[in-house]
Amino acid sequence: MTPSNTLPGYNLSFIISTRNRLPFLKIMLFHLLEQVQPDEEIVVVDGASTDGSREYLQELYEQGKIHQYISEPDRNQAHAWNKAMLMAKATLIKKIIDDDVFCYSAIRKCKEYMLHNPLVDVVISNDLSSTIIDHKKINKASRLSQFESWKEGVVPSFTFGDVHILIRRSALALIGLYNTSYVMMDWEYSLRISYLKANIAYYTGYNALSVGHPQSVSALRDVAFIEKQSKRAEIFYEYKGDKAEIKNWSKLKIFVGKTINYDKSRSGADPNNEDAQVELNVMYDHFYDYLSRVNDSENFTFLPSSSN
């Protein structure tokens, strides 16, 4: 279901992996489709959804609103995202998670920075986060101090989330794809990217806002297995730890899963219920507005890790 393999000269590929998340998918694509530019493509990998997502995406594809689209079973999340990265045709790749919120004006600043600095492999940024249970409470997070320590050679690796990352497609030859054996795939990926001394630039603005809800919780059936993965990666990547160890990431996921209790009495059992979608839209309108206002509140800058 992909168009011809001719490269139309895209500068940015927005890649999306999704499965049975139609209410969130509709909100995310509503905003993305409003913002996409002629030098950008949208690549969607659907994991054989059964909630109407497949049909919804097929219609958008046939209308020419998304550029590449496949729907087929995946082994796991990392497998799906790897498919999307391999499908991407543009110079730069931006991962778009279906239930998170993105500031496309901030992303485009990162895009222009990378296009003007061709030696930069990866751009990361500050991050915002919230939950559906308390959507008015939004937290700010930064990995700037960890970035600076890594840049100065104090530590060989550090962690950062992938919700705000932009990657140069040619850098995949250095940093590789997601490790499909890791449950916390972005944790391992960030350690690998930094340990391999990829050219990372830090944007002090906010590319994204992460949203926690029951369906966003990773499959944490075996916490002991996750901690075993943690120890293996910490040794391999010489990770010193900075309160972002994988055990803390997994504990946070478990906490979110236990504490977020979406009020089904208001939305009904069906997540595609019309009233539930309206309520979700209101929450996400707040998220998008907040993210936009934060990025408009001051002038942010780019901090290189080396001479670009």
What is the CATH topology descriptor?
A: Spore Coat Polysaccharide Biosynthesis Protein SpsA, Chain A
CATH homology-level superfamily: Spore Coat Polysaccharide Biosynthesis Protein SpsA, Chain A
Question: How many DSSP helices?
Answer: 11
Instruction: Compute the separation of the termini in Å.
Output: 38 Å
Q: What is the number of strand segments?
A: 10
| CATH architecture identity | Alpha-Beta Complex
Count of individual domains: 1
Helix content: 40-55%
3D shape: globular
Mean pLDDT value: 88
Largest sheet properties? 10 strands, mixed
**Structural class, from helix and strand content?**
alpha/beta
The unreliable regions are 1-6, 246-269
CATH classification class? Alpha Beta
The Cα radius of gyration reads 19 Å
Briefly say what this structure is:
The protein has 308 residues and is of the alpha/beta class. It is built from eleven helices and ten strands. It has a single domain (12-304), classed as Spore Coat Polysaccharide Biosynthesis Protein SpsA, Chain A (Alpha-Beta Complex).
3D structure, described in words:
The chain is an alpha/beta fold and 308 residues long. The protein has a single domain (12-304), classed as Alpha-Beta Complex (Spore Coat Polysaccharide Biosynthesis Protein SpsA, Chain A). The chain contains eleven helices and ten strands. Strands 1, 2, 3, 4, 5, 6, 7, 8, 9 and 10 form a ten-stranded mixed sheet that branches. β6 and β7 form a beta hairpin. Mean pLDDT is 88; it is low at 1-6 and 246-269.
